[in-house]
Hints:
Blueprint: H1 2-13, E1 16-25, E2 30-36, E3 44-48, E4 52-58, E5 60-61, E6 66-69, E7 75-83, E8 86-93, E9 97-103, E10 109-116, H2 131-155, E11 176-183, E12 189-195, E13 198-204, E14 209-215, H3 222-231, H4 241-244, H5 248-256
Parallel strand pairs: 1-5
Antiparallel strand pairs: 1-2, 2-10, 3-4, 4-8, 6-7, 7-8, 9-10, 11-12, 12-13, 13-14
Amino acid sequence: MRKIFLLIFAIQLFATMILNLNVKEQKESVDLFINFDIPYEGKIAQKIEKDKIVLFLKDVKILASWSKKLHNPFIYQIDVTPATKGTQIIIYTVKKLEIRAARSKDGFSLKLSFKPAIQANIAKTASSFDYTKIIYWVVGFIAAAMLLLLLLKLFAKPKPKRTKKIVVEQSPKEDFHIKFEKPLDEHNKIALISFHGIDYLVIIGINNILLGKFKNGEIETHEDFERAIDMHNVKTENKEEEHIFTTIEEYKKKASGEI
């Protein structure tokens, strides 16, 4: 009974997939919008490196890597790539950033906001104060601070250093594989991907678009796969991108299950 409960729990954790990514640039901030196929309840791990910040979404799947070059003074590129047991978001930056995450009420969307860290600026202005008194106050403050630090070292017990770390739990092996695939043109292909009992008909390439979902067993042969392609009216001729992909309104309806 315990094994069955753990299996059901693991399926719920590993059923989250990224459907769409969008970036909005503003003068003082950059917002990254992420849409999922089911509500996302997980946590975000953060790792700061020399010229980039890496965010890790545990138990989240993305079909193909995504990259966006930006034109602002503090972030110049964002990459979203598959990783072991999740997806990583790499923010290439030349400044320290403040990062805020906000999830929609239904859990299907996540907004990540990036802003330059606020630094205190000391303005040099003329003053009529008595600088001798100011020096005395500064010296007295430094002396008191040094005495306080000395007392703390003498009487305080050593404490272990606290590091900002989010532990990623070990998870079962993922049930994820491509059952069928077919090229559309030199940049795009259509594929049927099986993921925990659900088959996803998707277009992979310049954009990742979900066309439809099928129960396991509905599409078992290559003929079934071709019929599913014909049902969604996807042509495999080498045409411009706007003739290959469905409209964004149709894509949203398909992602939400309305059609």
